[in-house]
Amino acid sequence: MDCVTQMHRARKGEITPEMRRVAEREELAAETIREEVAAGRLVIPANVNHLAKRLDPMAIGKVARVKINANIGNSAVTSDIDGELDKLHHAVHYGADTVMDLSTGGDIDAIRQAIIDASPVPIGTVPIYQAVQEVGKVEDLTADDLLGMVEHQAQQGVDYVTVHCGIKRAYVGLALGRVTGIVSRGGSLHAYWMTQHNEENPFYTHFDKILEIAARYDVTLSLGDALRPGSVADASDKAQFAELETLGELTERAWAKDVQVMIEGPGHIPMDQIEMNVRKQKQICHEAPFYTLGPLVTDIAPGYDHITSAIGAAMIGWYGADMLCYVTRKEHLGLPNAEEVREGVIAYKIAAHAADIARGRKGARNRDDALSRARYAFDWNEQFRLSLDPERARELHDESLPAEYFKSAEFCAMCGPKFCSMHLTREIERNLGVREPQTRREPVGAD
């Protein structure tokens, strides 16, 4: 078997160009990156066929900044190639570190190829979606259909694939009495197939073949959480943790073949269970990178789940999750449009950045301090520049005070000129001869 993975090369002592690029972006030593990739604590999702186009390598794992993923993709009833490329542009422009194409209808091949060709960030997929679309019925799927689709998407240049290898036939019954059952689309498809055929999950029984494909193209395996809880009532139950134990086993099997792996995590967890979930995953899966959907910390806010999930995302990132999959306000309600993608990405950039600060990442607070100095100096343009969403910050300020004069005024529309606390403090400092702090310009990407 030809193995071209970053892990294989790292274990041979090689520092690849991709590792050097990651080291530059993370402001770490290249040898540190190599060691972490070799140990499996860091993944660099970089399909050789995407690297040949325009991929800018990045990393997910313990020593790296907390990353975020944005899901795009059409459904059987809405969106097209142009619409998905618009979502991709919004996701990358506002700071998504990876993007998953979850298309389930239309010309999936053409949509995915257009996304890969246009994307500088890693692209992920869930191969079973297209496999089902092509055969028509879930029960008509064969192991060859599933494995063939994984290889087909790897050939296209997909950098990581979600494969639900950990849901075994014995675990399905554990989830059937839940409040919300099996909420993972891929998980429910596998569960349905197993109950129809009374056979084991083909992705589990043929895991070695998946490893061969991944090794040939350097596709990172995102081991899917098919039995993740879809409500806070179902969090941390037997079904979830039974699957997690299997994912730990599969992690070791993947590493034995030098295949990069990350572990997907739960989508709904009460706040008091978040730390425990991270510690359990890191222990069972040997510190493989942890990639979580949210989690949502309450279930009562349809239309606002970018907020309910960003709360959980900030916490789980603080406790050690390595990548956060965004949730948009459309979660549970419909397919997000480009503006909702923007909003979801910003919510998760906030969560990831807050987690980096809490984890004590070197330099994580530099941008915050620079923006705070600009705020106290009433340098409104510098505040906008340093914001995660400069256009939105400027837009909201200018709703009330649009004239250029107000870009240096010592007040905003909330307090006005007489009640601004910082203006009054500056007046006290002037009267006492205290030197005013200077605004220091930080690169916008200094997070």
How far apart, in Å, are the first and last alpha carbons? 40 Å
User: Which structural category do the helix and sheet elements fall into?
Assistant: alpha/beta
Q: Describe the main β-sheet briefly.
A: 8 strands, parallel, barrel
Strand content: 5-15%
Strand order of the largest sheet: 3-4-5-6-7-8-9-10
If you average the pLDDT, what whole number results? 94
Principal-axis shape: globular
Number of alpha- plus pi-helical segments: 20
Task: Output the helix-strand order.
Answer: HHHEHEEHEHEHHEHHHHEHEHEHEHHHHH
* Helical content class: 40-55%
Task: Give an overview in words.
The protein is of the alpha/beta class. 49% of the residues lie in helices and 8% in strands. The chain contains 20 helices and ten strands. The strands form two sheets. Strands 3-4-5-6-7-8-9-10 form an eight-stranded parallel barrel, surrounded by seven helices. Strand 8 (261-265), helix 14 (274-284) and strand 9 form a beta-alpha-beta unit. Helix 2 (17-26) packs across helix 3. The protein is globular, with a radius of gyration of 23 Å. The relative contact order is 0.10.
In summary, what is this structure?
It contains 20 helices and 10 strands. The protein has helices at residues 6-11, 17-26, 30-39, 48-51, 81-93, 108-118, 127-135, 143-156, 169-175, 185-197, 202-205, 207-217, 238-256, 274-284, 305-319, 338-358, 366-376, 380-386, 390-398, 421-432, and strands at 42-43, 60-61, 67-72, 98-101, 123-125, 160-163, 220-223, 261-265, 290-293, 323-325.
